[in-house]
Amino acid sequence: TSERSLVLVKPDGFARGLTGEVLRRIEAKGYRLVALSVLTASPEMLHRHYAEHEGKPFFEALVEFMSSGPLTAAVIEGERCIEGFRSLAGATDPTLAPPGSIRGDLGRDWGEGVQKNIVHGSDSPESAAREIGIWFPQL
Ligand code: CMP
Fold it and tell me: What is the percentage of the chain residues whose pLDDT exceeds 70?
């Protein structure tokens, strides 16, 4: 059945001008754009978005990075698009993400761990519903 996923082009990807390339790949794959926004996220939003990572060693640095500048948030739609976008994105660590994926083609290690990995995609229908509620409360 058709589902929705929350996609973020993180501040590193946004600053590098990769929003269009990410959206191009999403559309080329056949998913539809349902909502699209450019914004600078507040630490409060990011604490909600990353609630499951609260307390982990990388959490504060992650919130600081993610609130450091503008990003693009999108809701996409299509059959199995949650899994499908995670496949498009590739592994969390861009050094190890396979060529052909967004992170594998466009990402690398910049000496700051695996934080700057260009995109985020929801990991389950439950996460997608929760995350869409944070970034697009009007939906
Ligand atoms: P994302 O899929 O958005 O979910 C959690 C994010 O934390 C991850 O992408 C990375 O940007 C970031 N992160 C930073 N360090 C780590 C780490 N050691 N393990 C996993 N994620 C990390």
Answer: 100
